[in-house]
Each structure stands twice: as structure tokens, then as C-alpha cells.
Amino acid sequence: MGKTTLLATLMGFTRVRRGTLRWQGRDLSRLPPHRRAQAGIGWVPQERWVFPSLTVEENLSAVARPGHWTLARVYELFPRLQERRRNLGNQLSGGEQQMLAIARALMVNPALLLLDEPMEGLAPIIVQELQRVIGQLIGQGGMAVIVVEQHARLALAMTRQAMVLDRGRVVHASDSASLLADKGRLNRLMGVG
Fold it and tell me: Is residue 192 very low, low, confident or very high in pLDDT (cuts 50, 70, 90)?
């Protein structure tokens, strides 16, 4: 519990009541969400929130900022989006909308990418594809990625560091591989058994 709230707080959708929220030496606590995006934070919300009346390409171009991620690079990462570039956001499948949501966040050229339940409600074949893409993004470096995911084994398989929250408190932090290998600890932390 507290995973989505953490991301919402990082993006400025909840108010920080105590302390500060720092990113790259700058206090973000009072910045509105659009300023946080300008500060280099990209966000893929659990609900995807694609623009339904814009084409795929318009969804991507609307938020584009200069940098490493361009339409060509995003289409290379998600060839299906290039095929569907003239389709409206509401004409895409759930998996395609999730690809679009991730691609749109990349077009902001973030230094930090927040992914909230990126695999939720998707077909297994799409989950595998997104797992590959997210693993690739993490492996490339140059961008920090926070993945909030209920399916712990899935998240641990594609990340380097793990943090388990319970009611907003960190109850475990370690490297992902060691937690994935310790089935007993993982089951206890996840409330299994």
C-alpha cells in the first residue's frame, strides 16, 4: 500500500505535508505537475490517460521536448505505434494504449520515468513485450525508472533495486535479484502463505 500515492506525490497530485521532495537538488514540493515534467520527470499513470481524440502521432508530438527521445526512436521501440500512427487514441487496444502512454512519457525526455502498474489488465503477450521494453529502458541507463507493480516477481525480474511498502512505510529494501531468489522472504513480504 502506498505505491500509487508515492508516484502521485512525486508528480504533484498530492500535497507534501511534511519534509521536502527533492529532485536533482531542487525542491519540488510546491511545483505543479507540468513544472515537474519540465524538470525531467515522466509519468505513466495506471489509467493510461491517452488523448482519445488525438492520433497516436499527435499524442506523442503534443508533449515532445527536445532530447534523445524522438518520434523515430519511439517508433523503433514500439513498431506497432508507427503502424497505428494515424489512429485515434480511442481506436487502440488496451495494450496499444499502454505502449502509447509509455512512448508519450518518453517524448518528454525524462531523467526519471515513473510507471504505475504498467502491466495491469493486459494480455500475457503484451505483458511480455512491455517487460522486454521496460527492461531495455532500465538496462540502457541514462534514466532512472521507478516501476510500481503488484506482480512482484515480474517487477523484480526487470529491475535492479526493490523496495516494499506497507501503508506508506518502507518495510524492505534490497537488490531485486536477491529478493527474487529468497522465495520465503518474498512470500512473507507479499502476504503469501
Answer: low
Tell me the three cell numbers of residue 44.
505513466
> Cα–Cα distance between 67 and 21 in angstroms, integer?
25
The total domain count for the chain is 1
Distance CA 163, CA 172 (A): 6
What CATH code is carried by the domain that includes residue 102? 3.40.50.300
Say which residues have a Cβ less than 8 Å from residue 14's Cβ, sequence separation at least 6: 5, 8
- Which residue range is the domain that position 73 belongs to? 39-150
Tell me the per-residue pLDDT of 14-68, one tens digit each, with 9 for 90 and over.
888 888 888 888 888 888 988 888 888 999 988 878 999 999 999 999 999 999 9
Any residues with CB less than 8 A from the CB of 89 and at least 6 apart, and which? Answer: 50, 51, 52, 53, 54, 55, 56, 59, 97, 100
